[in-house]
Design brief:
198 residues; alpha/beta; Rossmann fold; 8 helices; elongated
């Protein structure tokens, strides 16, 4: 008997997947058959997607909320679609695009239309990914030009850092005592130590 599956993807851990989950539940996808990755759509190297593909059998039905949830790489979306529909022989329904329902129009015209729509949507998904990256890069560059600094603030070196190093090297102080007095982590200490000796 064929099983019904669903696949959800969000780009990061802080994004909310509830809208996608609700759409799959509305279609009657059992909770145990919903696979979700919190990863970028740049490729298909995603653990839950791989588990899903291993679980699928010929005749199963896979629901995907939208094509960009499947992925954002034009060539790889085309390749995965081929693997799923031709090699594994599952049906796929893309919920926000009724033309991408492999249960419908299995004749030549239906297949042609579905393939055409898939190519257009795959292109749009990758194009949007590239636009997002471009906007991020522009935003970072603009912030840097305004003097915004990224990353953790630099830990300042205590004024008596040289004497702390000498005492530590002479084994008059333990490393823990040096870290406590210098108010720094071990990795910061060793980085500053290298800089100090250079």
């Amino acid at each position: 008997m064929a099983n019904i599956y669903g696949y959800i993807r969000v780009s990061s851990a802080d994004q909310n997947e509830s809208r996608q989950l609700a759409a799959l539940r509305e279609k009657g996808v059992p909770a145990k058959n919903i696979f979700m990755d919190k990863r970028s759509g740049k490729d298909f190297d995603r653990p839950q997607y791989k588990r899903l593909v291993r679980a699928l059998r010929p005749g199963d039905l896979l629901y995907v909320p939208s094509i960009d949830r499947l992925g954002r790489n034009y060539k790889e979306i085309q390749e995965q679609w081929r693997i799923l529909t031709k090699q594994i022989a599952v049906d796929i329904v893309v919920l926000d695009m009724p033309l991408l329902d492999t249960r419908q129009g299995k004749d030549l015209l239906g297949t042609f239309i579905a393939d055409l729509v898939l190519q257009i949507l795959s292109f749009v998904a990758q194009n949007e990914r590239e636009n997002i990256r471009k906007r991020q890069a522009e935003g970072i560059a603009a912030a840097k030009s305004r003097g915004v600094r990224f990353g953790r603030p630099a830990v300042s070196i205590p004024e008596d850092f040289g004497s702390l190093i000498r005492a530590w090297e002479k084994k008059q102080l333990t490393i823990n005592e040096v870290l406590r007095r210098g108010k720094m982590s071990r990795s910061t200490f060793y980085r500053r130590l290298r800089e100090y000796h250079q």
